[in-house]
Amino acid sequence: MYASREDIGYDFGDDSKVGSKPIKPNPNIDGGWAWMIVLSSFLVHILIMGSQMALGILNMEWLEEFNQSRGLTAWVSSLSMGITLIVGPFIGLFISMCGCRTTAIVGGILNALGWILSAYASNVHYLFLTFGVTAGIGSGMVYLPAVVMVGQYFQKRRALAQGLSTTGTGFGAFLMTALLKYLCTEFGWRNAMFIQGAISLNLCVCGALMRPLSPKDLSEKYVVRSDSEENRAKALSHSTETIKSNGVLDEEAEKKEEAANEEVLGSVQHIEIGGKSGSGRSMYGLRILKTVSQLTVTVRKGFALWYSSYFGAASLFTNRVFVAFIIWALFAYSSFVIPFIHLPEIVKQYNLSRQDNVFPLTSIIAIVHIFGKVILGIISDLPCISTWNVFLLANFTLVTCILTLPLMQTYVGLAVVCALIGFSSGYFSLMPVVTEDLVGTKHLANAYGIIICANGISALFGPPFAGWIYDITQKYDFSFYIAGLLYTVGIIFLLIQPCIQKKRPREKSTEEAQV
């Protein structure tokens, strides 16, 4: 129930006994059903992130329908995108209690409900509740399990798998933009949202594909990993000492609590067996009591794991590198979102609309972004390459492009910078990999929930902040400069903390592990 030192992802150098056990790995790890998980995650990114990238089509319809200011209307899209990511830590609680599959299916229903209810909106404030909040929470309940499940099913090819699954964002941006534009033209925006709600029910199918690994399979994965991470503990020694000083939660207390829970369930079962001669009503009541008891145990275990990850002795916040990662995330995502929101206006100011209509700059970002995710994932999986170094190099490239973009006043110059922005932002596929390296697979859901929550805050306030700067200066230059400087501050926090610069050695083959 509680976090052990292996679960947090640290190696204390005493795993010799564990590593000597013969291991028969699950064939679905790095193969088999794992690729169905990648397909499921790919479709989730198309339906959720792709749809959010295409909200500009609906935003124009809402402006014409409700005659509200651009700032107020834009908050509908910002709420949906921001809440999808901000609810990450709370979705981690649902995953701990119910699992990824159940959480994703419920989220798919909630997301579809938000789209359908929005079709009957009478004002913008109604959309805040139905589309911004309801659909946003539903999206978050599907998005986080889609990322977590890929991390659970892959060990050797994690970066490539995450890269392939997250390319759905780029594909979805094209598909959903064309689809929503066609639906709005043919049927009107209200019917378009109703149809999109029906399409979003396919998220439930994606959730059903998220077949959970058994605890035995996960423990075997930890054993294989612990034998290949001896050097990584040295790089994170400072964070390890922090965990040691705080102490790991008492395992004996965990065993006692589990024994007590089993005793309660056993007593209920004994009463049920002994009372077979009783009335059917009594037997029905005992079955309900047993079900409630089992549900209570599951909820308590899930909440204890979630609580210990945030506030317990093994809290994620005792890892200084992870805390620096959170600070970085608070500034990073807005630097990617701001160009998508404000590039059309910049093109108009520079009188480049004719060239942009032929091949939009935002399309260049989206297309190259797809290739960037896959290529960076392949490079990161190479034995001689550190995922952390690739992640940092991509960040440096992106922040340089953000600071350089206002200096470009020709279409060719802007196109080159946008292509570099799209490629370097492919590091998003490495974020789950880096997070798992920091905290371990078992805590990936809670840890990545915190990271995407920070990204959500950045996405929620970044574009409005850039617009506010424009209202003051009548230029977008300072918006990009300020965003770039804040982004640089986040990167500095990553550099000044102990970091995982050594690539994890490749896992030993099955034959070597058995010997």
Can you give keywords for this protein?
single chain; about 525 residues; mainly alpha; Growth Hormone, Chain: A; 2 domains; 26 helices; about 75% helix; disordered N terminus; disordered C terminus; transmembrane helix; membrane; MFS; transmembrane
Task: Tell me about this structure.
The protein is an all-alpha fold and 515 residues long. Helix content is 77%, strand content 0%. α4 (55-66) packs parallel to α10 and α5 runs antiparallel to α24. The longest helix has 31 residues, at 280-310. The protein is globular and about 75 Å long.
Rg from C-alpha positions?
A: 24 Å
Give the helix/strand class: mainly alpha
CATH architecture tag of the largest domain: Up-down Bundle
Mean pLDDT: 74
- What is the succession of H and E elements? HHHHHHHHHHHHHHHHHHHHHHHHHH
> Which CATH C-level class of the largest domain is it?
Mainly Alpha
> What's the CATH H-level homologous superfamily of the largest domain?
MFS general substrate transporter like domains
Shape: globular
Number of domains: 2
Tally of alpha and pi helices: 26
Main location: membrane
GO cellular component, one term: membrane
Pfam families: MFS_1
Domain Major facilitator superfamily (MFS) profile: 37-502
Please outline what is shown here:
This protein is mainly α and 515 residues long.
